[in-house]
Structure to design on (146 residues):
């Protein structure tokens, strides 16, 4: 098998784009005192109150130990509350506190500005094509994962 130059490897380009997006979001979230994983957790909790840590880890694309650290830090700052599930006592439901909702709203304003700026770099057709192409990439990778 012949080697493939890095410049032709799609994975390299995807990783660079992801790193650039994360670095930019990290910079804009810093004044709110949030990391990108903390922001992602608050964002998902704002849309899905009561999520378990396992569901939140899947939604945020992180490991269970990582989400537990994120949740511990958010809880210590009073941004989330965790309570036992009504029927499944060994499952903790996680919800934003009032302070968490305010922090989330402030941070989201900054993150949305980044997302809108990025989207503005493409025409509507290019955005639709990019989303479709990335979806195909995910479908292929999910289907071929050993």
């Amino acid at each position: 098998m012949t080697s493939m130059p890095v410049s032709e490897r799609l994975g390299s380009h995807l990783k660079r784009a992801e790193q650039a997006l994360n670095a930019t979001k990290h910079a804009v979230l810093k004044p709110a005192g949030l990391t990108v994983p903390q922001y992602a957790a608050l964002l998902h909790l704002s849309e899905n109150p009561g999520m378990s840590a396992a569901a939140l880890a899947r939604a945020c694309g992180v490991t269970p130990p990582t989400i537990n650290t994120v949740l511990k830090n958010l809880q210590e700052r009073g941004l989330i509350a965790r309570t036992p599930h009504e029927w499944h006592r060994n499952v903790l439901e996680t919800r934003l506190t009032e302070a968490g909702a305010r922090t989330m709203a402030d941070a989201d304003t900054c993150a949305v500005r980044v997302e809108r700026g990025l989207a503005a770099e493409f025409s509507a057709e290019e955005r639709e094509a990019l989303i479709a192409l990335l979806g195909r990439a995910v479908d292929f990778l999910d289907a071929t994962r050993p």
In short: The chain has a mean pLDDT of 93. The longest helix spans residues 98-120.
